Amino acid sequence: MTCGRRWSAMLLLLLGLAMAPAPLVAQPAGTLVVGLVAEPVNLDPPQVTDLNSNRVSRRIAETLVAYAEDSTQIVPWLAESWTISKDGLWYTFKLRKGIKFQDGTPLDAEAVKFSIERQFNPDNPANKLGKYPFAGYFFGNVKAVEVMDESTVRFVLKEPRASFLAVLAAGAASIVSPTAVRKWGADYALNPVGTGPFRYVSWQRGQQVVLEKNPDYWRGPVKVDRVVYRSIVEDQARLTELLTGALDVIVGVPPDFVAQLEGSPKVTVLKQVGVHVWYLGINNQKKPFDDKRVRQALNYAINKDAIVKDVLKGTGSPSIGPVLPGTWGAEAGLKAYPYDPQRAKKLLAEAGYPNGFSTTMWVPESGSGMQSPVAMATVMQSNLKAVGVNVTLQTMEWGAYLAKLRSKEQELFALSWMAGSEDPDLVMYPLLHSSQWTPNGPNRALYKSERFDDLLTQARHTTDQSKRAQLYREAQRILVEDAPWVFVDHEVQIAATSKRVHGLKLHPSFDLRVETISLSP
Amino acid sequence: MGRYLLRRLLHLGPVLLGVSLIVFLVLHLTPGDPAEVMLGSQATQEDLTRLRAQLGLDRPLHVQYARWIGQVLRGDLGRSLWMKRPVLTEVMERFKATLLLTASALVLSTVGGIALGIGAATRANSLLDRLSTVASLFGASMPVFWLGIVLMVIFSLWLGWLPASGMFAPYGGGGARDLLAHLVLPAVTLAAASVTIVARLTRSAMLDVLGQDYVRTARAKGATEWAVVVRHALKNALIPIVTVVGVQAGYLLGGAVLTETVFAWPGVGTLVVQGILARDVPLVQGSVLVIASTFVLINLAVDVLYACLDPRIRYE
Fold this sequence. Notes:
heterodimer, A: 521 residues, alpha+beta, 12-stranded mixed beta sheet, B: 316 residues, mainly alpha
């Protein structure tokens, strides 16, 4: 019976190992642990624009102007004031005095010029140190950055563009310490230094990024001592860690978990609509979609409320147009296309398709801002079948999808756009202006309307916000009438926090502003 | 033996060359390139062209391959396109974590499998035998990620005995006990499928050996049951088992990807997946080369162990 004894001993040993309870170490009082959906790529904002990298790097480096606490209206930040010339080409900023970077270097106009210019000026010594893939997108319109005096800097634009202020609030416009860039060279992206409320401490790849409080922060030190960002890709793991208290904040909660979190006494659930739009793109230049009636029919045929309620389970808010409702540029009087399959069939018949037609819909399997693409597309497919439009779904991996969308062969395609700001120019111009037709730009619907183009161009050239609002409202009315897309929803960000977290407010730009958090002991 | 070893080591070269060529081609022929993924849906054609030139993607394929191979031969695996860090540093750091996980799973599945197999063979067709068959079939049939999540929910969420993910506690952790606690769930998940294979093989190999004449002789000579089973039978049954364990090591190395993803284990598997989705060509190519080399070396070690176990096998 020695065999049996040995065997049971082995089993007991295994069981013992499994049962040795690890003391689930309680968080030190001032440490906040955040669960991210994916690991940051690197921490130099102009070099990456993925959400998770930005969520971390924006705590370290700041911008001249920033978004207000609750909206994407522009407020002064590192710059205390600015003037815009009458022709809209000169933007002159006065910097606040006395601000220092985390390495002691003073913030001055030279540092601003350095931070922005290194992205697009080949003569700037830091230009070779990194790849700035978005330099053209953000600063393609900047002719020069001039230092007027120690605390005054001027941007000279090539063309007037009123959304330039919103560009300066983006992560890519972060002001970084020139000393640090010169010191670290190509490794700067892994050793960021800015003026922000937190400074970089360490990064254990695949595990966590650690930031600690900047005691000399110009707005006063924050209430949290350190922040640890853990990247946990698997949704269930992130949820479990929150519920066991190992994480304090999680973002990017999938729709299926929302109900569970809302029902749990251990967590607080936060919701906020983001400046984002999810749409079904239609190739406006391809038959039968070149007929407005067909596009309108698609809008009547698709049940957006069902998608938002049943697939997204409250993680989306139905969309009528590309501009976020409630923002300064939104047209409050826009009428949504109600779910009306009969009207859809009638329009199709009028357009010459009484028996419907066949088409293909391209859908990515995942992707930034795509929410639940395949599920949403499947609902749309069945909605369209009910009115006689037979849709073949083609799903693709994200990278392959982006490549395919340059081919102009698309008929229907599911896509989304994160605008970063509520300025309508930043969503309507790239996506719907005729100069932005693929492959030159992101207007993959190949939409063209002369009146629409004209309105948008006019709105760029004036900085009077109420005048711009008027122009954009008319533009939105045209869009609803022309129906170049089926507008589906705006993503509602969902975050969940443990009960010891107070003061977190989700921001419409999808940024995660942990600096407002205080922790109860 | 020495010459045998040398010959096998020389095989490493052509195998790795073949692997490198396949990985390179697959990555470059996949639709969507690194520039496309980096710039996302906001990209303009102008930006794409510029970035492609910067990344060296506009050169012909054979030129890109030659450049890369030249670098590799000098020990430089290049820099990751996304993360800007040297690939070799990145991969070796993460590889340690994967090796730890894989080795633990291998030990668990080998020890567990052999124990279960011996138990089943010596009590063939008993209740124990049948129960262990069912249990191990279950472990092998369930998808790794499902099993991992179920174990996580039971042991972390409901019972609170073990941490749900990661390798160390983010604060206050770092000791061996902390590491062990984090290692349990992923190692058990990863070992689950292998245990069956090892157990079933051990059972049949043992049954086969236990029926041999020399075992009967040993028993007749008065040897204890323990001596019969372990010293005489098991040693001979081990040969096929060792071969299978060697193959399992390779499978575990590759299969670790899913387990690592579920448990946020900072291993090379998650690194490669990230790299593929981002089309980070140098990173994926470098990681696959490292993994392939390890696999070949493991196979070599198994062959050597084989020779040690069975003196009948002579090598030229």
